[in-house]
Each structure stands twice: as structure tokens, then as C-alpha cells.
Write a structure and sequence with these properties.
Distance between the termini: 28 Å
Number of strands: 6
Shape: globular
CATH class: Alpha Beta
Order of helices and strands: EHHEHEHHHEHHEE
Number of domains: 1
Structural class: alpha/beta
CATH topology: Rossmann fold
Radius of gyration: 17 Å
CATH architecture: 3-Layer(aba) Sandwich
Length: about 200
């Protein structure tokens, strides 16, 4: 499949990020730092690709519909001077559903759901928490999103660490072991192009 250049962002820091809670498809508001991270990430885009089809609107701006990603996308739009109405919200790029873990801290889940926690640690790729999704399942909806954007030249995407991890694995043809170890801090912007990734400074 032919793939566009993707400027890949994660939402800014949230209250639950600070508290160490699994967010999944529940939501937590951006912190003051999270809002600043979103703005700074937008400035990185301006610095690096202000002539990169932005003025001609020859790009598409996608975001997860979850509140923290939406708020981040709005801040980026405002910083770039873009119309918020141009953001395309797609359910296929909303965060992995953590099922019974959502809203709870990692430490709580280790104790309260010890069996499920351990089984997931052993098999993160295909293990599905009660009411949740596995990475294996999530990659199917990411492929649906990639099919939607395959004919675009440039895509700006605001999503989540788990979704971005799986997307990077697909785009860069990483094996499952490498993909599952990928991280993306809230203040890191990535550029995916020609099957490779790089950090946008």
C-alpha cells in the first residue's frame, strides 16, 4: 500500500498521565504542561514544514475523537492558524480500549487484577482484557485508516501512544517485539516518510 508522509503527534500530558492511570477510551483533561506541549509541538511543525504544503492546504489533518486528542488538535490548529473545521475525527484512530483497566492506576491493576495483568504482560500483542481490545485487534482499524489516507501526500495526525506505536510498527515494518517497545513522549513529534521515522526537532 502506498502511504503518505505522516506528521505524528501524541496528545499533550493529561491529569491521568500524571497519576499513572490507564486512560484508554475514557478521557482526562490536559494539564497546563499538556497544553504547552501541544503548542510547542505545533511550533515544531511550523519550523520544519511551513512550506511543506501547509499554505496550499495540500494536506489532511486527522485526530482521534477522544477529548484529550481533540483538545490537542484544536491547540495545534489555533497555533498554525488553521480552521478547526478542517480537522477530521476518525474513530479508527482512537486509543486502545483497556477494558477493566481503564481509569485505574497500574499499581491498582497489578494487585486487583493480578491474573489479567500478568497474562497481558506475557502476551501484549493478542491478549484482550475484559471489555477491551488487543493490539492485534487495533491494527485492523489502523489499516482501515491507512486505506482512507493512502492517496494523500501529507497527513497530520494527533492520536495516542498505543495507537501511534502500532501505526509506526505498520508503517516502518517493525516486528511485533520492536513495535511493542516503542515509546512517544507527549512532547515528541515524529515524521513517518518512505517507510522510516524520524524526530521533528
Amino acid at each position: 500500500m502506498k502511504l503518505p508522509t505522516i506528521i505524528l503527534l501524541r496528545h499533550g500530558q493529561t491529569l491521568w498521565n500524571v497519576e499513572g492511570r490507564y486512560q484508554g477510551q475514557l478521557n482526562s483533561d490536559l494539564t497546563s504542561l499538556g497544553k504547552e506541549q501541544a503548542k510547542n509541538n505545533a511550533l515544531k511543525i511550523v519550523k520544519n514544514i511551513e512550506k511543506f504544503s501547509l499554505e496550499q492546504n495540500a494536506f489532511k489533518f486527522f485526530s482521534s475523537p477522544l477529548g484529550r486528542a481533540k483538545e490537542t488538535a484544536y491547540i495545534i490548529c489555533d497555533t498554525l492558524g488553521l480552521d478547526r473545521k478542517n480537522i477530521i475525527f476518525d474513530n479508527n484512530i482512537q486509543e486502545v480500549n483497556y477494558g477493566i483497566f481503564e481509569g485505574k492506576t497500574k499499581e491498582f491493576c497489578k494487585v486487583t487484577y493480578a491474573k489479567e495483568f500478568q497474562e497481558r504482560e506475557v502476551n501484549k500483542w493478542s491478549y484482550t482484557l475484559e471489555g477491551g481490545e488487543s493490539y492485534e485487534t487495533v491494527t485492523k482499524r489502523i489499516h482501515l485508516w491507512l486505506e482512507r489516507v493512502k492517496d494523500e501526500k501529507v497527513v497530520i495526525l494527533v492520536a495516542h501512544e498505543m495507537i501511534n506505536r502500532a501505526l509506526r510498527g505498520i508503517y516502518c515494518s517493525y516486528d511485533k517485539k520492536k513495535m511493542l517497545k516503542l515509546r512517544q513522549k507527549n512532547d515528541i513529534v515524529l515524521k513517518l516518510e518512505n517507510g522510516q521515522e524520524s524526530i521533528v526537532e
